[in-house]
Amino acid sequence: xxxxxxxxxTGFTIACGVLGLLVGSFLNVVIHRLPRMMEADxxxxxxxxxxxxxxxxxxxxxxxxxxxxxxxxxxIGALENIPIVSWLLLRGRCSACKAPISARYPLVEALTGALxxxxxxxxxxxxxxxxxxxxxxxxxxxxxxxxxxxxxPDSITLPLLWxxxxxxxxxxxxxxxxxxxxxxxxxxxxWSVYWGFKLATGKEGMGYGDFKxxxxxxxxxxxxxxxxxxxxxxxxxxxxxxxxxxxxxxGRNVPIPxxxxxxxxxxxxxxxxRELTSNYLHLM
Length: 284
Fold this sequence. Notes:
mainly alpha
């Protein structure tokens, strides 16, 4: 009975939307803690190479210690951690010290819930929906981490690449040869742009994480979607970059992360890639 209810389009969409809200709360933890875990690991490696004692620091993981207010250290209880609802009831402030809580936390939860529900509705019950939902969650985490730090962690991009190849063993999103070529072409295309720009200007135009993210998208969606992803991400990046320079007085020499635009283009290709490509070729 429960299986039949979840397999029904409406029930499956609602269940996935609720699951997405819960996962969105966890993604906030990933976005906040993973860069700090990476930094602590780098510091430990540098200290080891220099022959120095390892830095003494409290162990940090995605599950320990419990989430707490960064201002007063108040532990976040279960009732204060209900996606979106708790933030609204607390009026965006800590229950202990009344320090403001960033609106980005409910935004990430709402975005994750909405995109998860959309993915369930688009693909329906099955392996494709499960894989696409995992891709959506990963792209959301990568987007906000890149916004904050201009890093795309290997601990997300590389497993994402291999998972895409694994799912396409059964042709879930594309055939396996297209997925393998997509992974190689995705990496090498941006790698070539990187080195061409560096040789021409002496500057680095993007990070290696962007290569790996496009390789992962190629592994999921096939090489046929790469031109669309590159075109969409470049257009969006150019428009937003110019807007930041003109409206927000963003310095021309201040780097702008490219990962979020790749992620957004990847989502568009995941949902409507064939239609967009067909319309573009028709216009051409």
